[in-house]
Design brief:
This protein is mainly α. Helices cover about 80% and strands about 0% of the residues. The protein contains ten helices and no strands. Helix 4 (about 55-70) runs antiparallel to helix 5 (about 75-85), helix 4 (about 55-70) runs parallel beside helix 6 and helix 8 packs antiparallel against helix 9. The longest helix is centred in the last third of the chain and has 19 residues, at about 175-195. It is elongated, with a radius of gyration of 18 Å. The chain starts with a helix and ends with a helix.
């Protein structure tokens, strides 16, 4: 089976559908069902398309996200790190970037906010170059970084970052701008409460 045949194969279409369903289950706050489904999708994708295929990599990012959401931070970090390492040879790989950003969050939740911030600072120039400075994924990384700054008690920096993010979100036409604004507002509330003390 050639490359183009695999893209339009019934397995490929089913894998894409399964990934979307798992993401929907996660957004509906049904993480156990999402994990079960994405593991099934991943098994089919690895067998039918191979672990290096874009669909398999996407399924792995979804799995790592589900593990993170379920509070299984070490597992999420391992899954995301393995994916990023596997895709490291691909320049400007967006899935590797997403996996590395998830690794940073997992590291933060395991108690190492200093390392998480180092990783987020390292990733930010790549996000800005590959996605653009105003892209929702770049802004999400910056919002996550603001929360990390709060964990490190660097409240003035977090406050400045949040105010910049809120200004960008207010002018954005992106559908995710509202969620980004809420995330920035949460970080800003923490930062301003702490600087007032």
């Amino acid at each position: 089976m050639g490359f183009l045949d695999r893209l339009s194969s019934p397995e490929s279409v089913g894998i894409q559908r399964g990934i979307r369903q798992a993401q929907s289950l996660l957004h509906e706050d049904r993480p156990e069902e999402a994990e079960t489904l994405i593991r099934q999708v991943l098994a089919v994708s690895d067998k039918a398309l191979g672990p290096a295929h874009e669909h398999s990599a996407t399924a792995r990012v979804v799995l790592a996200t589900i593990l993170y959401t379920r509070g299984r931070y070490a597992e999420a970090e391992t899954e995301a790190h393995d994916l990023a390492a596997h895709r490291a040879q691909r320049p400007d790989d967006r899935l590797a970037l997403a996996a590395l950003a998830l690794c940073a969050l997992a590291v933060r939740e395991q108690g190492d906010a200093t390392e998480a911030l180092r990783r987020q600072d390292e990733l930010l120039p790549f996000y800005e170059r590959i996605h653009a400075p105003g892209h929702p994924l770049t802004l999400k990384l910056r919002a996550d970084r603001a929360h990390t700054l709060n964990r490190l008690e660097r409240y003035e920096e977090a406050e400045a970052e949040c105010r910049a993010l809120l200004a960008l979100a207010a002018t954005s036409k992106e559908p995710t701008a509202e969620a980004l604004a809420r995330k920035a507002e949460d970080a800003l509330a923490t930062a301003t409460a702490q600087t007032a003390i």
